[in-house]
Amino acid sequence: MLQDAIGDEELFIVGLTVSDSVMPKVTVTLDGPTGLAIQACATISRRLARRIDEHYGEDSAYSLEVTSPGADQPLTDPRQYQRHIGRSLALKLTDGTEKTGVLTAATPEGVEIEEVIKQKTKKTTLPAAFYSFGDIQEAKVVISFK
């Protein structure tokens, strides 16, 4: 039902939560190769609300939010990485290490980054290294205001 309501085959679901309260809040987080425009959120929200009303009845009480991941949100789906090639990523690996560097490639299996190491006043860029998605605990785009 959810994918049908989205309509756009390039968009994909990166999060779905339903709060456990008197009036449940349904939050659907979507993304796509070029992000998600606010107009697409509104259109999908109307479609999804119609589907929920058809399935559960128009008297069901809920709040619906359709959104895209914020700039500070971790990347959770391998399809999100492609559009961030050329940007800096901060990776937390499952072995506890952290890496920061420029994303140079993204495949269905993992990512390649050129790690930047800071030593006092000097930055050194290491050759690109590959990290599989299974080794990545969390990945965030490093926001820069240069």
UniProtKB/TrEMBL annotation:
Residues 7-72 form the Ribosome maturation factor RimP N-terminal domain. Its main location: cytoplasm. Gene3D superfamilies: RimP-like superfamily, N-terminal. GO terms for biological process: ribosomal small subunit assembly; translation. Residues 75-145 form the Ribosome maturation factor RimP C-terminal domain. It comes from the Bacteria. Belongs to the RimP family. Required for maturation of 30S ribosomal subunits. This is Ribosome maturation factor RimP. The lineage of its organism: Bacteria, Pseudomonadati, Bacteroidota, Cytophagia, Cytophagales.
